[in-house]
Write a structure and sequence with these properties.
transmembrane helix; transmembrane; 3 helices; membrane; mainly alpha
């Protein structure tokens, strides 16, 4: 896979990982704020952004496995 597709996949996974588990949760607002904080403070290339996205992607994969 080339870089563009991988970044797209990671972005989609991270977005889904943030949104899906907390739609029914009262903590939803916290996670929305955290996502905004990350995007404002850190650029995509920064280590923080990559760490956060990879973490969220891992969480997403775990949840998908659990659902199946």
């Amino acid at each position: 896979m080339n870089r563009k597709t991988t970044t797209l996949m990671v972005l989609l996974a991270s977005a889904a990982a943030v949104v899906l588990p907390f739609i029914r949760s009262k903590r939803m607002n916290f996670f929305r704020r955290w996502g905004r904080f990350l995007t404002k403070r850190f650029k995509w290339n920064s280590a923080y952004g990559k760490m956060a996205t990879s973490f969220l992607a891992k969480q997403m994969i775990r949840r998908l496995r659990f659902v199946k």
